[in-house]
């Protein structure tokens, strides 16, 4: 399990997280008493961090996230991004953002512009059924309050975090395909450095842009699978193109084959 964070600007609240092998707990803290139940007494910030010494800090109740319970939901699939929205009253129920964005193809920034809801955490899930320790937890914190965690947390860009834990897909095949013919394509799961990720046994979802796919799903075995694509109805000068991804995240890899004499 890796923990990282990105500083997004002034947020008005901070997070205390305690990570275990099966999930994590989070408390929201702030100097703003309006975020918490009336009458809650503040504590000196030094109880949380030397950086907060001398500040009157209110600490909310802990919100628990149990990975075993959550991953039993159908929305958790291979290659998921579980987000934890932050509202004024605290951390809200998590959900798989890729379900909302896989059809619209909206980016994370576009999704924020639509919802105007700050995301406190991303949990990157490489495979359905994986251990919580195989995931990566990324926090979006403000410059006004530090992230307090029971494990070391690194400042890191969100793209780098996702690449470090989520599989890529690479497609390879022949140099071309004959009209009305078929070609055998290999798809492999990859690590960030391009090496084969042989631990992956996910289902890959295929989409033909041009050409014909007899099968639109293939199962990876030791990180690899093969499928056939046909140039039915296509002639010399056309191209066959296939994209590969996962159930809620398409187009991670693609291949284009020119149609002609091979």
Please provide a written account of the structure.
The protein is mainly β. It has 2 domains: 164 residues, no CATH class; 90 residues, Sandwich (Immunoglobulin-like). It has 4 helices and 20 strands. Strands 1, 7, 8, 9, 10, 11 and 13 form a 7-stranded mixed sheet that branches. Strand 2 and strand 3 form a beta hairpin. It is elongated. The mean pLDDT is 93.
Keywords summarizing the entry:
2 domains, 7-stranded mixed sheet, 262 residues, Immunoglobulin-like
Topology:
Blueprint: E1 2-7, E2 14-20, E3 23-30, E4 43-44, E5 56-59, E6 63-66, H1 67-70, E7 80-87, E8 90-91, E9 95-96, H2 97-101, H3 108-115, E10 118-125, E11 136-141, E12 148-149, E13 153-155, H4 158-165, E14 168-172, E15 182-190, E16 203-210, E17 217-219, E18 224-230, E19 239-246, E20 249-258
Parallel strand pairs: 1-11, 1-13, 2-12
Antiparallel strand pairs: 2-3, 3-5, 3-6, 4-5, 7-8, 7-9, 7-10, 10-11, 14-15, 15-18, 16-17, 16-19, 19-20
């Amino acid at each position: 399990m890796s923990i990282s964070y990105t500083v997004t600007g002034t947020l008005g609240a901070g997070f205390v997280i305690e990570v275990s092998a099966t999930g994590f707990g989070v408390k929201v803290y702030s100097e703003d008493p309006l975020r918490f139940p009336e009458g809650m007494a503040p504590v000196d910030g030094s109880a949380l961090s030397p950086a907060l010494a001398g500040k009157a800090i209110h600490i909310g109740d802990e919100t628990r996230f149990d990975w075993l319970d959550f991953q039993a939901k159908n929305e958790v699939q291979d290659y998921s991004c579980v987000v934890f929205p932050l509202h004024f009253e605290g951390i809200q129920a998590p959900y798989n953002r890729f379900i909302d964005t896989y059809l619209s193809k909206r980016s994370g920034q576009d999704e924020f512009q639509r919802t105007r809801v700050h995301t406190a955490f991303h949990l990157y899930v490489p495979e359905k059924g994986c251990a919580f320790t195989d995931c990566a937890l990324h926090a979006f914190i403000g410059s006004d309050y530090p992230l307090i965690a029971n494990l070391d947390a690194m400042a890191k860009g969100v793209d780098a975090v996702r690449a470090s834990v989520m599989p890529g897909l690479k497609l390879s095949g022949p140099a071309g395909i004959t009209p009305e013919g078929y070609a055998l394509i290999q798809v492999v799961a990859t690590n960030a450095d391009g090496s084969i990720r042989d631990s992956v046994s996910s289902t890959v979802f295929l989409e033909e842009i041009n050409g014909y796919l007899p099968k639109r799903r293939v199962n990876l075995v030791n990180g690899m699978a093969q499928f056939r694509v046909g140039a039915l109805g296509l002639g010399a000068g056309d191209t066959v193109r296939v994209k590969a991804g996962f159930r809620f995240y398409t187009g991670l890899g693609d291949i284009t084959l020119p149609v002609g004499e091979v």
